[in-house]
Amino acid sequence: MLLVVGTLAWGSWASTDFPRVAPEEMADRALQRSQEAYTVMGFERTIEPGFKNTGVSTQNTLGTSFCYDNGLLGLEDNIVDGAYSMRHTWALDHVPASQAVPGLRRLHRFLRDEGWSVTSYREGERGGSWDLFVQRDDGDERMSFTWYPDREYFTGGATVPCAHDPQWKDGDAGPAGGDRRPPAFGPARRG
Hints:
single chain, alpha+beta
């Protein structure tokens, strides 16, 4: 019994052993994941930072979330001070079926071939949304994509693993690493 408790406690401690990585580096990593997917999809438009109306206008944002330690023995979640998870979210309006359908099918094959685990893939039935959700590294790194045919609206996003912000200090509020603004996002530059 003592061995089981020790193993669970070790697993709980190890879950807070996040690398020390500056938010800029994790933002770059999330942007790289999004850029790769955007390129595979074949999108050609550039999306400026920010968004106006969720669900109808373009979007290009970075955000952070708290990271949790799964509590003692994995029984409760506690926020890990100074840790953050970075995500990049993007969206395009006016995406017709002729672009979204082959693009999502191509992206599904590409990510699977690149070693991502496909947790959900749904081709819209009866006019419903098309969804692709993938992960790797035991779910620490995730991407999601949805196309809404009724609005011709496409969303994508990449979340990278938790990390400790080296600049975080006791007493800082909110998740570490916040307040980042992405650059304009668009077609990969070929040169």
